[in-house]
Amino acid sequence: MRTSAASFIRRALLAASMLGASTAAAPALAQNLVVANARIIVGDGTVIDKGSIVVKDGRIASVAAGPPPASAAKLKGPNRVDGAGMTLIAGYIDDHRHLIQGPPAAFLKDQAATRMRELLEAGVTTVQSGGDNDEGVRALKAMVESGKIVGPRIITSGRVPTANLKNEEEVRAAVRKVVAEGADSIAEVHYPITEPPQKNVPTEQESRNLAAGIDEAKKLGVNFQVHASAPAPMLAALKLGAKKLVHTPHFGWLTDAEAKQVRDAGAWVSSCTGFGAPVFDVYNRENKPTFRDGKPWPEQVLDGEGRGREAGYKPVNGRTLYDNGVDFGFCTDTTYYAPAAIAHEIRVLSLVMSPIDLVKVMGQNSADFLDKGKDLGTLQPGKLGDLLMLTGNPLEGPWNFTTVVLVAKGGAIVVDKRALLKTVKVLPYVRPPQR
């Protein structure tokens, strides 16, 4: 008898929950870890040239210059790592990535383990799903949390298409339903449902529905995220109560005055600046530019205005938001190979952001976007032991953000490629003399 996709996902959820209850796989991820002799980019503006980090029971116990404190020697069975010549930085956070690729059941069975491993190898230790199949994402999260597969911490988002629902009560009921089913947040909600070059003006019912959804999510203590890809609907969404905005606007230029309105509303924006810039050597090896879904660039940029002008709108608008005091976070909004997607977003962001800016954008700002700033985003005592070891110093150049050789999640080492360094000599970057 043929098993349905829905049945497969339900069985995946059940099996993962049973595995978590019957094994020590999940608790094992909260471990002790000591790293010494490393450069430490704390993430709050502090850089320790040669210091140590101690993670106890999954959380950072100490970060200091010099060797680990004497108390670190008393920890039971910690992993001890010599970070000489390396740089430590907090685990990366992708505020919005599409995790389920293709039919959910087939993805969970055949691709999930590999795709989650790729995210970790890119340095992503926390990721929020971007409006994927609700049940499939919950099953994926359960597989990771139970230890069935190894992957980043997953923030699940539920879909509530406010523009397609009849009235406010139907919207409120939909929000309650997805939260009751296990959604950690409400996924990007398009406002308005039409985008340029179509008429980019929401109907009155669309606006009432969005306001109702935002309000209901607030009552439930859930993050509600709005996709407003042009300045006008972004500002309109703020007036309806939106606080979390997915995607930097790419239909027109954002003014300083408009950016200040975003700041004054206390809203956050996640980046996705790589949306309009061409991707190379992912979907082909012929040096042909493509959009993020593999279609030709620029003529088939999704919802684009033509000629790839989004590649200019997004980074410049992002810098305008950042300079006007908006908490600007990091996200890729992609499905393709994670290391390439992370590198692409960093590459485009680095057109307008310094390495110091990128540390803040990829760290504390991204954590705050998910309301996880108390636990993630920096290497400070009390926070989760999510850290990366890099062969290069990101403060010397943005390309070094992608030199990940070791990843720890909650103190547990989940990626370790240090053995490769024994066969490949890594030369340190030397700043040239000033002229």
Please give the structural blueprint.
Elements: H1 5-22, H2 25-28, E1 33-41, E2 47-56, E3 59-65, E4 79-82, E5 87-90, E6 92-97, H3 104-121, E7 124-129, H4 134-146, E8 153-155, E9 157-158, H5 168-180, E10 185-190, H6 204-219, E11 223-227, H7 231-239, E12 244-246, H8 256-264, E13 268-270, H9 310-323, E14 327-329, H10 338-349, H11 355-369, E15 387-390, E16 404-409, E17 412-416
Parallel strand pairs: 1-4, 1-5, 6-7, 7-8, 9-10, 10-11, 11-12, 12-13, 13-14
Antiparallel strand pairs: 1-2, 2-3, 5-15, 15-16, 16-17
Describe this structure in words.
By secondary structure, the protein is an alpha/beta fold. The chain folds into two domains: 31-90 and 381-422, Urease, subunit C, domain 1 (Roll), CATH 2.30.40.10; 93-369, TIM Barrel, CATH 3.20.20.140. The chain contains eleven helices and 17 strands. It has helices spanning 5-22, 25-28, 104-121, 134-146, 168-180, 204-219, 231-239, 256-264, 310-323, 338-349, 355-369, and strands at residues 33-41, 47-56, 59-65, 79-82, 87-90, 92-97, 124-129, 153-155, 157-158, 185-190, 223-227, 244-246, 268-270, 327-329, 387-390, 404-409, 412-416. The strands form three sheets. Strands 1, 2, 3, 4, 5, 15, 16 and 17 form an eight-stranded mixed beta sheet that branches. A six-stranded parallel beta sheet has the order 9-10-11-12-13-14. Helix 1 (5-22) packs across helix 3 and helix 3 packs across helix 4. The longest helix has 18 residues, at 5-22. The radius of gyration is 22 Å and the shape is globular. Mean pLDDT is 90; it is low at 15-28.
